[in-house]
């Protein structure tokens, strides 16, 4: 877990001058401290702020989870926040002991990748996801595996965890997209994404309503 936190810190700070190929060789077990440290990174991959003159630093490497489990992570950010067109995430397994509670407003959120321009394949999410404690309005996209695709592809992924949107959090004024695998698949022009070979076997609960 400490290694993954360090990798997120290094990538987001621009320490890499190349796009790395990363392979997980051992199961990753978080605790309260390492979970907080990872949340503080904001997730791997950052988007620049034009008003501050900062440039995008989307993750554009290869990350191979090798089927090793990521357990006990308690997070309010996606594992990968922004994945660029050259980014490829594969074979990541989120254990059921990991939980995601997204409390922000506008943005894209999911267990594996928030905003995806590249590819996610053969990933498994057994974690539950909850949206709660929203205090401001905005447009929000939440998926089990990927929050929102922008020309990216999601292949052969599965989501077995539950997605929960309590009725008490009705402060999303503009739009809200909630999906078992992908929150929203952008389908306009060159930004069109693809989703194929994926399965969802959890519950989606919105207020008092539940569906499979």
Structural overview:
- The protein has 212 residues and is mainly beta.
- The chain has helices at residues 2-12, 32-41, and strands at residues 21-23, 28-29, 62-64, 69-71, 74-75, 80-83, 88-90, 93-94, 99-102, 107-109, 113-116, 119-121, 124-125, 128-131, 139-143, 146-149, 153-155, 158-159, 163-165, 175-179, 182-185, 194-196, 199-200, 204-206, 209-211.
- It has a six-stranded parallel β-sheet, with no helix packed on it. A six-stranded parallel β-sheet has the order 2-4-8-13-18-23, with no helix packed on it. Strands 5-9-14-19-24-25 form a six-stranded mixed β-sheet.
- Helix 1 (2-12) runs parallel beside helix 2.
Question: Brief overview, please?
Answer:
The protein has about 210 residues and is mainly β. Helices cover about 10% and strands about 35% of the residues. The chain has a 6-stranded parallel sheet with strand order 1-3-7-12-17-22, with no helix packed on it.
Question: What is the distance, rounded to the nearest whole angstrom, between the alpha carbons of the first and last residues?
Answer: 33 Å
Count of helices? 2
Provide the gyration radius in Å. 16 Å
- Name the poorly predicted regions: none
Mean pLDDT metric: 88
Query: Which geometry do the CA atoms define?
Result: globular
Percent helix range: under 10%
Secondary structure class reads: mainly beta
Number of strands: 25
Order the strands across the largest sheet as they lie in space.
1-3-7-12-17-22
């Amino acid at each position: 877990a400490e290694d993954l936190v360090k990798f997120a810190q290094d990538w987001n700070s621009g320490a890499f001058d190349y796009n790395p190929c990363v392979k997980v060789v051992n199961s990753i077990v978080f605790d309260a401290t390492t979970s907080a440290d990872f949340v503080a990174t904001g997730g791997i991959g950052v988007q620049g702020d034009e008003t501050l003159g900062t440039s995008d630093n989307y993750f554009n490497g290869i990350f191979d989870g090798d089927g090793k489990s990521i357990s006990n992570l308690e997070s309010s950010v996606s594992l990968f926040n922004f994945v660029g067109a050259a980014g490829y995430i594969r074979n990541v397994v989120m254990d059921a002991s990991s939980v995601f509670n997204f409390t922000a407003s506008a943005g894209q959120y999911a267990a594996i990748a928030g905003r995806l321009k590249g590819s996610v394949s053969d990933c498994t999410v057994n974690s539950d996801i909850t949206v709660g404690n929203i205090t401001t309005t905005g447009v929000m996209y939440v998926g089990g595996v990927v929050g929102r695709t922008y020309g990216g592809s999601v292949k052969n992924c599965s989501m077995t965890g539950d997605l929960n949107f309590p009725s008490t959090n009705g402060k999303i004024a503009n739009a809200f997209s909630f999906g078992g695998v992908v929150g929203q698949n952008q389908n306009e022009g060159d930004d069109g994404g693809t989703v194929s070979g994926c399965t969802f076997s959890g519950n989606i609960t919105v207020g008092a309503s539940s569906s499979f």
